[in-house]
Amino acid sequence: MRVYVRFGTSHGDVRLARFKRVLLAAQNVYGYRKYLRAAGLANPDAVTSLGAVEPVLPLLPITDIGEFRNSPAEFENASAFPPGPQPFLNPLRCAPRTAVLMHGFQQTQSVKYIPPDWTLLTRFRPEAVAASVGVLRMLAKGIAGGRGRLPSLQFAMIAFTGSWAGGLLQEEDRDLFWRVFQLPVFEQHLGPDGRVVAWECEAHRGLHLLPTRAVLEELDHRHLLVTSLTDLRRPAVRLRTRLAGTIAGGNCPCGETSPKLLELRNAVDSAEREDLPTAASA
Ligand SMILES: [Zn+2]
């Protein structure tokens, strides 16, 4: 088994500190305890003395995301609070009046949470809308079917993607959104706790990773593993997502240098996943 990990170095200290906090939280989680013991990471001193993230990763078990989701009690650290609201990551250089149709984001003068309701949305007169790709599909189909209008839109649509957000942004979604909204679409991929872990910039050449929010690993070119660096209540350590993608170097025309996630797609079928070790089988 080969694990490919690439990451930015500019936030290395924050990233390592958060990784340690997640492992300390994982020590309180039944689902990880025996694997941490086997890795020599069962006591706080062993974790606080770690000097890097990458060498530790192969020592940790891989947990299937379905097991993580279906056994909430086994992966809960009752001594921690759930993560608070996250700041909205605006992909534009300007700050349009943005309706965010999803809970969990900080509100500002220009960014407001609006429930997915035509009346409330129209009254807010959004210049940009951020919503799960599933909700954006409903909006687009509603407008195309004459059931609503959003004439104030003039900047962008932001599509949150992931298993919790209606899946991935497919080419047909981009076609639909362009046909209906005639605005650029920016994808923002959510991690296990709903935090944005990768985002699309104005160059539209893949998704920039946020190295202080999550560790993404590309496993055998077939599977993405994610370790959240932000959730201490439900520590997500090396979750095997049902997604695949390529992690590549930065050097984006937008000026960002963080690595990118390219060709994000649904992973191969479950039969091919059978040969991978999991926490349950390790
Ligand atoms: Zn970029």
Description:
The protein has 282 residues and is α/β, with parallel strands linked by helices. The protein has 2 domains: 3-83 and 213-273, no CATH class; 98-192, no CATH class. It has helices at residues 12-26, 30-38, 44-48, 65-70, 118-124, 133-144, 171-181, 270-273, and strands at residues 3-4, 63-64, 98-100, 111-113, 128-132, 156-161, 185-190, 196-200, 207-209, 214-219, 223-228, 239-240, 243-248, 260-266. It has a 9-stranded mixed β-sheet. Helix 6 (133-144) crosses helix 7 (171-181). The model is unreliable at 1-9 and 270-282 (pLDDT under 50). Zinc ion (ZN) is lined by residues 201, 203, 208, 252, 254, 256. Zinc ion (ZN) binds next to loops.
Short description:
With 282 residues, this protein is of the alpha/beta class. The chain has eight helices and 14 strands.
Task: Lay out the secondary structure.
Elements: E1 3-4, H1 12-26, H2 30-38, H3 44-48, E2 63-64, H4 65-70, E3 98-100, E4 111-113, H5 118-124, E5 128-132, H6 133-144, E6 156-161, H7 171-181, E7 185-190, E8 196-200, E9 207-209, E10 214-219, E11 223-228, E12 239-240, E13 243-248, E14 260-266, H8 270-273
Parallel strand pairs: 2-12, 3-4, 3-5, 5-6, 6-7
Antiparallel strand pairs: 1-10, 7-8, 8-9, 9-14, 10-11, 11-12, 13-14
Helix pairs in contact: 6-7
Zinc ion (ZN) binds at residues 201, 203, 208, 252, 254, 256.
